[in-house]
Amino acid sequence: VLMGNDHYVRVLVMTGAAMLLCTAPSIAMEKSCAGGPGPAGAERGMKHERSFWKDEDKALGLTDEQRAKMKVIREASKAQQEAMRKEVKARHEALRQELDAEKPDRAKAAAIVKEMSVLEERNGLDRIDMVLKIREVLTPEQYQKLQSFREKKKAEFEKRRGQKKFKGPRE
């Protein structure tokens, strides 16, 4: 009954288009950073991640047991995020194909958008689960330090990001 409602379908399609526009740059960046010489793409991200956690480890003063538990949480989260990224990418491609079809089907496009919404919700819940698991491992003082450390890193990133000039897309 709801699918027959043009307004509902229009909202779903517009939401999907907005999601596509918001995540397309990250998908494009993922493609443009892949391969090639030097620490590009995933390798560069892995180096950054290792560096971030190494700095964080020092700042928090983790015990060996905490370090091991945090590693398990990070690796599980990383695997979930990678699987989620692939699913979202597939849904974006399906939506693009449907909208580029000679006669796009609004109901199909709306269904794809709904799937994308479910994936986004699941992604948010996965992040909540990760934070709660991390909080179980850390003492309240360590968690407070973690928040301060991440805010500091975020501010540094934003400062560097603001200093860079856009040079156009990579070749």
How would you describe this protein?
With 171 residues, the chain is an all-alpha fold. Helices cover 82% and strands 0% of the residues. The chain has five helices and no strands. The protein has helices spanning 6-33, 41-60, 64-100, 106-137, 140-163. Helix 3 (64-100) packs antiparallel against helix 4. The longest helix has 37 residues, at 64-100. It is elongated. Residues 24-49 have low confidence and may be disordered.
Question: What can be said about this structure in brief?
Answer:
This protein has 171 residues and is mainly α.
How is this fold's topology laid out?
Elements: H1 6-33, H2 41-60, H3 64-100, H4 106-137, H5 140-163
Helix pairs in contact: 1-4, 3-4
Tag the structure with descriptive keywords:
single chain, 171 residues, mainly alpha, 5 helices, 82% helix, 0% strand
Strand content: under 5%
Strand count, sense and barrel status of the largest sheet are: none
Q: Count of helices?
A: 5
Compute the average pLDDT. Answer: 76
What would you report as the Rg, rounded to the nearest angstrom?
A: 20 Å
Sketch the topology as an H/E string, one letter per element: HHHHH
Count of individual beta strands:
0
The structure class reads mainly alpha
CA-CA gap between termini: 48 Å
Low-confidence stretches: 24-49
Shape: elongated
